[in-house]
Amino acid sequence: MTNTNETHVASPSIKSPMASLLTLLAEQRRSIISILSIFLLSSLFLFLLSSNFDRFSLASFSTNTISSSSSSPSHSPSISASRKELNSSLPTPPPPAQPDTTPVSEQDEGEGNEVFDFKWEICAVWKGLQAADYIPCLDNIKAIKALQSRRHMEHRERHCPSPPPKCLVPLPRGYRDRVPWPRSRDMIWYNNVPHPKLAEYKKDQNWVRVSGNFLVFPGGGTQFKDGVRKYIDFIEQILPAVKWGGHTRVVLDVGCGVASFGGYLLDKNVITMSFAPKDEHEAQIQFALERGIPAMLSVIGTQKLPFPDNSFDMLHCARCRVHWDANGGRLLLELNRVLRPGGVFVWSATPVYRKDEQDRTTWRAMVDLTNSMCWKTVVKSKESNGIGVVIYQKPVSNSCYFERKATDPPLCPKKDLLIIPWYLPLDDCISQINQKEPVEWPVPWPNRLQTVHSSLVPEENLITDTTHWKEIVSNIYLTDLGINWSSIRNVMDFNAGFGGFAAALIDMPLWVMNVVPASGPDTLPIIYDRGLIGVYHDWCESFNTYPRTYDLLHSSNLFGNTTRCDVIQIITEMDRILRPGKWILLEESLDILKKVRPVFLSLHYKATIVKSQFLVCQKSFWRPDNIKKGS
């Protein structure tokens, strides 16, 4: 039998011409199909790649500005630009991607395709000011020049520009991420706060020294000749009832310098609100915040401090250069307002221990004023180095006031409704102590954090709020958002409520500035009663702090409850306050998050919506090249 397979393996020499032609055409057809297939697959891949790129590029912004019930009035100007113009304003690439810690489907949930087209510019400032340190409400030179008087420090008070700025502050040359805490208490990068004037001016008092690339803080001060630690111990030695960190938890340091007093009290479990004006002591509050110590810019001039009545356990002033008896004693009356009944005022100044005529005159005036206010001199003593301290105590009832032979200063009328001290003039009278219920000192720290006076808030409300924030922080904030908490020291809560967010973070090596909006419910007394610190503020204006002073900005339902302010202005202020590389964490409705996210993206932030409830934004080091005209 013949093998049929052999007939198909004929050699080329015997293949017919027609068979050869058919074979060649078949091979060419297969090649053409292969080429076409590769071309179509390549085209499809490029199309998908392009679509995916557009999804995460600037095309994902909407062309609308933010306009909702939470934003500024609807007459805000519409801001738009072509995509070409927007792309041309991006001189540097976006920041490195933040590590993703949640599933992609969850991160992308509801982020939308809104575009925010806006030409961001660097703030232009008056000659003599540094744009990198711009504080809008304290650097309004036009308003300051128009003042009729500066006698009572009016030029150091707030004078906010109208409308608020929508420009960005530049970075100092050579700026870098801050020195980590606790090392930062003793040294910071010079380039981050490049101001050597104070180091030269106070070189003999160990406030601060320039050492290579660093500014070093030895823990000295005008009154701390043997160091601030010994000074702190000396106060407790002469008045053991102070009981740092137990009985005394919340302190106000007036004219704080670089805040070394408050910085070292942290070792005693004491939280100090340190403040000083923006004055010739160049950048002292900026130094404090760069060190990781709670501080803010303020002055006792003609207006009340932005703190509630009866808040601080202790007031402190070490050579703060305040003339307490001036202007009818109004400055000391203001301290009396914020001091808790039974609290003490520690005054360390030359009139306490020097005997020259000027100091003697000042001392006699202080004796007369404190006696008229019913302040009791608890102790007057000297350190071994000759520095003297006097400690006064505020009464716990009104009985002494009624028994005075003289009625100057007079008693203030009783208040049926407390008015938040925001742009209010100083009183020329003594604030009466509310005696509807017995005056009780807060329970010792740390139990104080969970227990407040029943007249401030029902216990069940505080428990509910505390439990809520503990769950949010432990189950979401610390685990699901990709925030590097080990790099965070200075935190600000824009809408603090009862201080539950701060309370949930109490065991972490950070501190929280609890801000209570001046137009909302007054919960700040509760925050102080819990042993935390905070301040009143109106977010339609800039905050009294330097740029780049906070590592995390947090807010819960701020934008949803803000109808008077321009949301873009609030975000601009957030950018001014926040350090590069650090985070903003917002809790809002999904609708609001979709509207504000494109604004952060336009600032080159990494901005991710998580669980349809939170927006996590990380600031980059990007700054625009152009400077705003006509500022």
From TrEMBL:
EC top class named in words: transferase
Annotated segments matching region Disordered: 63-110
Keywords for the protein's UniProt record, in alphabetical order: Glycoprotein, Membrane, Methyltransferase, Signal-anchor, Transferase, Transmembrane, Transmembrane helix
GO cellular component, one term: membrane
Ranges annotated as biased composition (Low complexity): 63-81
The UniProt record lists the keyword Membrane: yes
This protein's name: Methyltransferase
